[in-house]
Specification:
It is built from six helices and five strands; from the N terminus they run αβββββααααα. With 182 residues, the chain is α+β, with helices and mostly antiparallel strands.
């Protein structure tokens, strides 16, 4: 073995040792960061919070440190809760029955967060109107739809062959006659 090969082996061992110490150190850091994360409570607009509550213009938000969110209203029924991701970090959870209260606290939010909130409310309103429209349409029965279509055809007056499929019907009748003759 030459000097070059010995030096190369030593540098490889050194590199392995350094990599191993980095991995072990990062595992230690991960352990300590888990411990510290419990102590560092985090939620949006935490600087306004006192004892886990944010009061702004008579509106009270509750900080939820586990989900990194602030909550307005009753969160017991998830179907009635809008979950809005805030660009500044974290989430805003609002009960749909408390949207008027949210309007009172708009001054608390940054412009980017306020934009996200407005988009989410607009999207919710759009989806609600579409759902109501579908519910109204489901109430119509098949008979109502048939009655409406026959009234529409009767209003048009004379039947055109293309409208009622007369040509297709006549061709079908001719085919039946041909089969009967055989």
């Amino acid at each position: 073995m030459g000097i070059f090969e010995i030096t190369n082996m030593q540098s490889q061992n050194y590199t392995k040792n350094v990599k191993q110490s980095i991995v072990e150190g990062s595992e230690d850091n991960a352990f300590f960061s888990k411990l510290l994360s419990d102590k560092r409570k985090k939620c949006p607009y935490n600087h306004l919070a006192k004892d886990g509550l944010i009061e702004y213009n008579g509106v009270t938000f509750v900080c939820n440190y586990k989900t990194n969110s602030i909550c307005l209203g009753d969160m017991s029924n998830p179907r009635e809760v809008l979950n809005i991701s805030l660009p500044s970090g974290g989430n805003l959870k609002v009960n749909i029955n408390n949207i008027d209260d949210l309007a009172k606290a708009t001054g608390m939010f940054s412009p980017a967060d306020l934009n996200a909130i407005m988009r989410a409310i607009a999207q919710y309103n759009h989806c609600t109107s579409k759902r109501n429209e579908l519910d109204e349409n489901e109430e119509k029965t098949v008979e109502d739809i048939i009655d409406e279509s026959t009234k529409h055809v009767e209003k048009q007056g004379d039947y055109k062959e293309e409208q009622v499929g007369y040509r297709e019907y006549a061709v079908f009748q001719d085919q039946l006659r041909v089969k009967k003759d055989y």
